Amino acid sequence: VHRISFSEITQQAVSAAPRAAEPAAPGGIGVYLAWSFVHGYLTMAAQKRDAAAELRRLAEDGELSLPLTRVVVLCPTGGGSDDWTEDITALDNQLQPLRDVSGVQLSGRSYGDLSIYRVGSGAGGACFALELATPLRTLRLGTAADELYEREARSFVTELQTLLKETPELSASYSVLAVQPGASVSDQLQQLARDDTPPRRVSCPVTQ
């Protein structure tokens, strides 16, 4: 029996997406991808790994500031350059990769590596656990029109935020950050940390 993977689901959804610029029907590709991302990946990953607990464990020796103990899922909502589809640092050159934490095994494949990034090059900069929204990467690579991508990316973010709010065990481990075109991701991350309720201010040991 062939078990369809999340990647296959996403590829099929992108292939079925309209290429023209007509308005999307309710429950379009962005909503579908958000639902698939939550139920086909985040839920299973959360069952196998408590990301918040892992980040708290990383804080025991306290070398760097880690304002959030949740993984921040970055969701680029603009078209333009495709560089970010392979590298988070292409979104903001102020993000410095520091270390990777092992992911989880789902259906024989590894998913969800926790990549720790520091804002800026100074030793005192805040660090965050970041993950790129995989469905948006696939959507960007499979969508020629920026207008279509931007519309469906916004729909994806809205639905993803709604689904996480409805699932306490996921909202405890993940935050969503819609990366606005031309905005500083570093600034948005630090604002997200300032707005966090209750604040989770711990320290993060990082080995380079």
How is this structure best described in words?
The protein has 208 residues and is of the alpha/beta class. The chain is built from seven helices and nine strands, in the order αααβββββββαααβαβ. The chain has helices at 6-16, 29-48, 51-58, 134-142, 146-165, 168-171, 185-195, and strands spanning 64-66, 71-76, 95-101, 104-106, 109-111, 114-119, 127-132, 174-179, 202-204. The strands form three sheets. The chain has a five-stranded mixed sheet, sandwiched between helices. A two-stranded antiparallel sheet has the order 1-9. A two-stranded antiparallel sheet has the order 4-5. A hairpin with a 2-residue loop joins β4 (104-106) and β5. α1 (6-16) packs antiparallel against α2 (29-48), α1 packs parallel to α4 and α2 crosses α5. The longest helix has 20 residues, at 29-48. The chain is globular, with a radius of gyration of 17 Å.
* SS element count, helices: 7
Oligomer: single chain
Determine the structural class based on helices, strands and strand pairing: alpha/beta
Number of strands: 9
Spatial strand order of the main sheet: 3-6-7-2-8
Shape descriptor: globular
Task: Report low-confidence residues grouped into runs of 5 or more.
Answer: 1-26, 198-208
Question: What distance separates the N and C termini?
Answer: 43 Å
List the secondary-structure elements in sequence, H or E: HHHEEEEEEEHHHEHE
Mean pLDDT: 74
Report the radius of gyration as a whole number of Å: 17 Å
Strand content: 15-25%
Q: What is the makeup of the main sheet? A: 5 strands, mixed
Secondary structure: helix percent: 25-40%
